[in-house]
Amino acid sequence: MKALLAKKVWLFPMTGILLFAAWPNSSFTFLLLFAFAPLLWLERRIGSDSRFFWLVWLNMFIWNISTTWWIWNASPPGAAGAIIANSLLMCFPLMAFRFTRRHAGDSIGYLSFILYWLTFEYIHHNWELSWPWLTLGNALANAPEFVQWYEYTGTTGGSLWILLLNLAFVYPMFKLPHYNNRFTFYLRLFLLFGPMIFSTLLANRYEEPDNSADLPNVVVVQPNVEPYTEKFTKPPQQLLKQLIDLSQSKIDSQTRLLVWPETAIPAQAWEHKLHEDPLFQPLYAFARQHPQVLIVTGIDSYKFYGNTNPDKFSARQMSDGSYYEAFNTAMALQGNNPPMLYHKSKLVPGVEGLPSWLGFMGKLFDDFGGISGSLGKSDSAIAFGGSNNPYVAAPIICYESIYSNYVTDYVRAGANVLTVVTNDGWWGNTPGYKQHMSMSRLRAIENRMWVARSANTGISCFISPSGEVLDAQPWDSQAVIKHSIAPNNEPTFYARYGDWMSRLAWPLAVALLLWVFVKRWQNRHNH
Description:
- The protein is α/β, with parallel strands linked by helices.
- The protein has 2 domains: about 1-205 and about 500-525; about 210-485, Carbon-nitrogen hydrolase (Nitrilase/N-carbamoyl-D-aminoacid amidohydrolase), CATH 3.60.110.10.
- The chain is about 45% helix and about 15% strand.
- The strands form 2 sheets. Strands 1, 2, 3, 4, 5, 6, 7 and 14 form an 8-stranded mixed sheet that branches. A 6-stranded mixed sheet has the order 8-9-10-11-12-13, with helices on one face.
- A hairpin with a 6-residue loop joins strand 8 (about 385) and strand 9 (about 390-395).
- The two termini are about 30 Å apart.
């Protein structure tokens, strides 16, 4: 056996390499069909649990660092923490699968592989150290023609499809009991082509309205402000004037929505003084000049609590003893109406926030360029609507756009168009901003809504409800784009019910794991 494994040493890192090679924006998405095969083959041949654990971690580390290394540009401690910890967390579903297969047999064991991985992804979407960038279903972001059925399942359906295809690929390799060559062949064909055919039927059903010329339009601005120096050295008044001038160049009588990027106005604004803040007066004047336009922009805002401690982990204290919270905020403004605010709720771990139970590490992150505390956040998603305006905008801020289930909260709050405001310039000219844009294609399909994406340095674009990217603007360029789009006031099945597949999978996974523990305990006491 040792000699066999020595000859197959090239298989040891192959799962990590294949997952990286298949990840957006790669042209080798098909590698997902068998990316887990090397690891599953080795699992049956490595007797030591500790050796298998480190083999799994090696593959997960290769996958993580090769696809998300660019986080280092924004925060070295954030990158190191995310890559090392995420690689470790990914070992849990695979080790649980190994435990289950050994004590419950192959059939239940390989079923558990699917349930445990889907449960891991569900947890990773919903706890304080959430980092769902490498959700398997995201890997299909640049193959929208194959996943139109995401309007029913979200990315969990894509993860399930990938896992099933991997098992269909490896099952005959092991020559397991009850293996039937013909049956497995047809099953693999069905698993591979069935969802593709269904996706084609759904795509053909969707048609753009013929009267697009009569529709209102949306203007998106890409100001291209360098985020590390220019953003903080140029006077904010000058940056605001630049945004207004760029917008004026495209707005017409049919414009009803204007989108600026995340923290487009880099002034530290107190929310209780926002309406009287001198910096924002040109923006208010611009809004009054175009009363038909709903303006959505990112700002930095602060909430003042005085001497009353709000008893929140994200609350900070000033030298005079008073308390406040800092936010990454989306603001909406139309005409003379008061501004509407939403605080980013899905914070990037280590960069924008730390879990409350890791608060003791705040000074370490502060010393290495991260944050010492945590930003505040809204309790739930909201939607921005205006007076006599056909658009109700979802103010999706940057990192939030990778959360398949959370974006549906905006839709249930009334949104009929998705606006993504982001500043991917922190990562530099790396694969990060391309991956990020691609994932918005899935949000469009899941909700069958147009996406208007404003990215400070690119890629700003429009994305149709079928996932087609339009008017994409290149990296590191200044641009203004305009498109006539139809709002969608009919939520999809997935928008109405959210991540229903995960809510079914995780109780089954927990019940199965408990059953295996009980079975193992009984076997030990019966011998």
